[in-house]
Design goal:
152 residues; alpha/beta; 4-stranded mixed beta sheet; 23% helix
Length: 152
C-alpha cells in the first residue's frame, strides 16, 4: 500500500481549526504529512465530507459492564455499588469476554474514542479481551497491577 491522500474542509490541529487540510497516510496507517490551506483537493485524494478530529481517550472504562447497560440505571447508588462488587454467578466464557469487548470497542470507535484504559487489568484470563480490542483497532493499555503499567 502506498501513501494515501485525504482532504478535509477542516481539521483540529495544534489546538485550533485549520481549513482545507490535506492529510497523507503512509503504508502503516500513520500520518506521513499534514498540510493546511490546500484550497482544492489533489486529483487522487479522497475528499472527506466533514471535519477531522484526533481520537479521544477514555481513561476509565469497564468492558465487563457492556452487556449490563440498562440494568441498573434506576436504582440508588448504594444498591448499585452492592451489586457491582458481588462476585459473578459464573465465570464468563472466553467467547463472551471477546464478544462484550468487541461490542464495547466498536461503540467506542464509532463515537471517536480510539484509546481506552480498561479497568480489568491484565490478569490471566483476560487474553480474549485484549485480543478483541486489538482486533477492533483500538490502542490498548495493559496494567498487571496498580502502578505497574505495560503497553501492547
Amino acid at each position: 500500500m502506498s501513501t494515501q491522500l485525504l482532504w478535509t474542509p477542516q481539521a483540529w490541529l495544534n489546538g485550533r481549526w485549520e481549513h482545507n487540510v490535506c492529510l497523507a497516510v503512509d503504508a502503516q496507517g500513520r500520518w506521513a504529512d499534514i498540510t493546511s490551506n490546500t484550497p482544492t483537493p489533489p486529483a487522487h485524494a479522497t475528499v472527506l465530507p466533514g471535519p477531522v478530529l484526533p481520537g479521544l481517550v477514555n481513561a476509565h472504562y469497564h468492558s465487563h459492564d457492556v452487556l449490563c447497560r440498562g440494568m441498573f440505571e434506576d436504582i440508588p447508588l448504594e444498591a448499585w455499588i452492592a451489586l457491582a462488587i458481588l462476585p459473578p454467578g459464573r465465570k464468563p466464557s472466553a467467547r463472551e469476554v471477546r464478544l462484550r469487548t468487541l461490542i464495547g470497542a466498536i461503540e467506542n470507535l464509532r463515537n471517536g474514542t480510539t484509546t481506552v484504559q480498561d479497568m480489568l487489568g491484565a490478569a490471566p484470563g483476560t487474553e480474549p479481551m485484549v485480543e478483541a480490542a486489538i482486533a477492533a483497532g483500538q490502542a490498548v493499555a495493559l496494567c498487571t497491577d496498580a502502578g505497574t503499567p505495560g503497553v501492547s
